[in-house]
Specification:
Shape: elongated
Radius of gyration: 25 Å
CATH class of the largest domain: Alpha Beta
Distance between the termini: 9 Å
Largest sheet: 6 strands, mixed
CATH architecture of the largest domain: 3-Layer(aba) Sandwich
Number of domains: 2
CATH topology of the largest domain: Trna Endonuclease, Chain: A, domain 1
Strand order of the largest sheet: 1-2-3-4-5-6
Order of helices and strands: HHHHHHHHHEEEEHEHE
C-alpha cells in the first residue's frame, strides 16, 4: 500500500529463485547478442581515432621521448598496447621501476603537480626505454624499414592497438551499456506511472525530496560522525511518502557471468548497513537485477536484509509503494 514500507518482494521466495535465475540469464544473453557488439563497435571506432592521434603525436612512434610524454601524457595507454606483448599498467611500473602515481596520473592525461622536474624526467626516460625496446615491430613494420608508414599501414596498426585497448576494458564497455539500458527501462516505467524526473537539490536531505519525483545517480549522505556521500543509481520519492520520508533507493545491477557477482556481493551489503545506520532500520535498498545472479548471491543478499526486483518482472517495483 502506498505510504507504507513494502513487504518482501523476492528475498523471501526461494522457491522462485531457480526459475527467475534462468529467465534472467536468458534476458541478459538476448540483449548481449543483439546490442553488446554494437556498444563494443562504437567504443572501438572512437578508440581507433584516439590511437591514430597518438601515432601522430609520437610521429608514428619515432618520437617516444620524455618531452613528448610531458606534452601528451594521455598517449601512455596506447603505447602500452603497442608493445609485444602488450604491457599492463602494473607491469610497466615494475619494468621501468617507476612511480605508480606518475603512471596513473599520466593515463588520466596529467603529470603529478608536485613531482620535481628532474625526477619526472628520469622516470619518463625509464618508461620510454621500456616502451621503445618492446614496440611490436610486426604491427609497425615501418619502424624496421625506417620510413614513414602508408595510410593503410597506419590504419591497420591503429585498429590492432584499438582492439587491444578495448579488449582490456571490454567488460566495463558492456556493463556501462547495460546500465544505461536498465536506467532507461526504470525511467520509462516510472514516467508511465505518473512520476516526474527531477533532480533533488544538492545538499538538501533526501527526506525533503518532492513526492512523485525520481532522480538518477544521486549522492546520498551517510554517517553520523564522519559524513560521506555514497552514489545511488535511482532514488524515488513515492507520491504518498512513507512515514519516515525516506525515498525508495534502487541499485541497477547486471552481470555476464556468475563469478563476478559473487565477488561484488559485499558492496551492496556494506551500502545498506551505512544507509540503515544513518536513516533507520526501515531504509530499503532494492536491487534491480538482470543477468547471472545465482542462488548463492541471492541468499547472501537476502541474509543481509536486501531485496530485489528482476528486470523481467519490472512491475514488482509497484510493490515498493510506488
Amino acid at each position: 500500500m502506498p505510504g507504507r514500507v513494502s513487504v518482501a518482494i523476492n528475498a523471501d521466495k526461494p522457491q522462485l529463485w531457480k526459475a527467475d535465475i534462468a529467465t534472467s540469464v536468458d534476458c541478459f544473453n538476448t540483449w548481449f547478442m543483439k546490442f553488446a557488439p554494437e556498444a563494443y563497435r562504437k567504443s572501438r571506432a572512437s578508440t581507433t581515432e584516439k590511437v591514430k592521434q597518438a601515432l601522430i603525436r609520437t610521429k608514428d612512434l619515432s618520437d617516444v621521448s620524455p618531452d613528448m610524454l610531458k606534452e601528451h601524457p594521455e598517449v601512455l595507454p596506447t603505447l602500452r598496447m603497442s608493445t609485444a606483448p602488450p604491457i599492463a599498467r602494473d607491469r610497466l611500473i615494475g619494468l621501468a621501476q617507476t612511480s605508480s602515481n606518475l603512471v596513473k596520473r599520466m593515463e588520466e592525461g596529467n603529470l603529478p603537480p608536485h613531482m620535481a622536474g628532474a625526477n619526472v624526467d628520469e622516470h619518463l626516460k625509464r618508461i620510454c626505454g621500456v616502451l621503445t625496446e618492446l614496440l611490436d615491430r610486426d604491427i609497425f613494420p615501418w619502424l624496421a624499414e625506417k620510413k614513414a608508414p602508408s595510410d593503410v599501414e597506419r590504419d591497420r596498426a591503429s585498429t590492432i592497438v584499438a582492439d587491444r585497448l578495448c579488449g582490456a576494458v571490454a567488460d566495463p564497455i558492456v556493463r556501462n551499456a547495460q546500465e544505461k539500458r536498465q536506467l532507461a527501462l526504470i525511467e520509462e516505467f516510472l514516467l508511465s506511472h505518473g512520476y516526474q524526473k527531477k533532480a533533488h537539490p544538492s545538499g538538501r536531505p533526501i527526506v525533503e525530496m518532492e513526492p512523485g519525483t525520481f532522480s538518477f545517480r544521486m549522492n546520498v549522505v551517510v554517517g553520523r560522525v564522519k559524513r560521506v556521500n555514497i552514489p545511488i543509481d535511482v532514488v524515488v520519492q513515492p507520491k504518498k511518502p512513507r512515514a519516515s520520508k525516506i525515498p525508495v533507493l534502487i541499485e541497477a545491477k547486471s552481470a555476464g557471468d556468475f563469478t563476478n557477482t559473487n565477488k561484488r556481493r559485499k558492496e551492496e551489503a556494506k551500502k545498506i548497513d551505512q544507509l540503515r545506520d544513518t536513516y533507520g532500520k526501515d531504509t530499503q535498498l532494492v536491487l534491480f537485477l538482470c543477468g547471472y545472479f545465482d542462488s548463492g548471491y541471492l541468499g547472501y543478499e537476502a541474509a543481509e536484509g536486501l531485496d530485489w526486483v528482476w528486470e523481467h518482472r519490472i512491475n514488482d517495483l509497484l510493490r515498493l509503494g510506488l
